[in-house]
Amino acid sequence: RGIGIQGAAQALGLALGPVVGGLLLAAGGWRLIFIVNVPAGIVGTAAAWIFLPRSRDLHALTPFDWIGLGLFVPTIVTLLVAISFGHHWGWTSAPSIALFLAAVATGVGFVGYERRCREPMLDLSLFRRVPFATGVISGLLAYGMLFGAMFALPFFLERARGASPDQVGLVLTALPLALGCVAPVAGRLAEHVGSRPLTVAGMALASGMLAFVGLSQPSGWLLIAELGLIGIGLGLFIPPNNAAIMASAPRTQAGMAGGVLNMTRGLGTALGLALTSLVFGAVVADRTSVSATSKGFTAAALFLAVVALVAALLAAGLPGSIRMRHIDDTAEPPRRKWTKRRDTSGR
C-alpha cells in the first residue's frame, strides 16, 4: 500500500511535467519551464530533510565506487546521444559509429569492473534474482512507454489537430490523473491478489489502448477517455511492480535496490523519449505536413503498444504474490543509525 502511494506521487509528478509545461508555455514562454524548477527544488529538498526518517538496517558504511560511476555515466550518455541524433547524422556516419562504440566499450568496462569490485556501485548479483531482473526490465519498458506517449501526443495534437499548448496540457492531464487515482488502490489490492494479475492486466490494457489510439486517431472526449484507460493500466502496473522489485532484494541492499528502481525510471524516461523520437522522425519527412505527422504518430503509438505488450509478457514472470518483507532474510540484522560513534577507548 505504501509503495502504491509513493508510486502514485512519483508517477504523477513525472507525468504532470508536460501538462504544467504546456500551461507555462502558453502563459509566458519556455523560460518559465526552467525557472519554476528553482522553488520546487528548494521546497522538495527542505521537505526531505525535515520529514524523511533516518535509515535503519543499513549496510556497513563503505567507500563509494567512483570508478564505477565514471564508467556508467559515459555509457548512458553516449548511447542516448547516438540514439537521439543517429537519424539526423546517419546511422553509418562517423559520429554515430564512434558514439555506439564508446557506449559498448565503457559498458563492457563497467560490467567487468563491477563484477570485480568488492563494494560496487551496482551489485550485479541482484540481477540473478529472476523477480528482481524481470521487474526492472518490465518497469523500464513501462516508463519508456509512458514518456514516449507523453512525447508523441503533443506533436500530434498541435500539428495534426491544431491545438494550443495549454489545450494539449489539459488533454494530457487525463493520463496522469487516472494513474494517480488507481495506483494506491492497486498497491493495496496487490497484497490480496498478488502482483502478476495486476501488472499483466495493466500493461495489456495500456498496449491495447495505445494501438487503438494510433490507428483510430480519435479526438475530443474519446481521446481523453482512451488516455484515461492508458493511465489506469499504468496505475495497475507500477505499484505491484515496484513492490516486487523491493521485496526481492536483501534487507541490507534495500538502498541499492531503491537506487536501481529510480535508475529504471530515469533510463526508461530517456530511452522512451529517444526511441519514440527516432520512430516518429523516421516516418515524418515533412514536419509541416499534417498527413505526415499523423503517420508518424501512428507509427510511434504502435511501437509503444509493442513495448507495453513485451512488458506485459515479462510481468507474467513476476511472483504471484508479494510478501511485505525481504524474501531471503535469515536473521534480523543489527539496527544501525546515523549517529556519532561513542568513544570507548578511554581517551
Supply database-style keywords.
347 residues, single chain, 0% strand, mainly alpha, disordered C terminus
Structure in a nutshell:
With about 350 residues, this protein is mainly alpha-helical.
Number of helices: 12
> What kind of oligomer do you see?
single chain
String of helices and strands = HHHHHHHHHHHH
Let me know the number of strands.
0
Percent in strands = under 5%
Helix content: over 70%
What's the topology here?
Layout: H1 2-28, H2 31-35, H3 37-51, H4 66-89, H5 94-116, H6 130-160, H7 165-172, H8 174-193, H9 195-216, H10 220-247, H11 254-283, H12 290-315
Describe this structure in words.
The protein has 347 residues and is mainly alpha-helical. Helices cover 75% and strands 0% of the residues. It contains 12 helices and no strands. The chain has helices at residues 2-28, 31-35, 37-51, 66-89, 94-116, 130-160, 165-172, 174-193, 195-216, 220-247, 254-283, 290-315. Helix 6 (130-160) packs antiparallel against helix 7 (165-172), helix 8 packs antiparallel against helix 9 and helix 11 packs antiparallel against helix 12. The protein is globular and about 60 Å long. Residues 324-347 have low confidence and may be disordered.
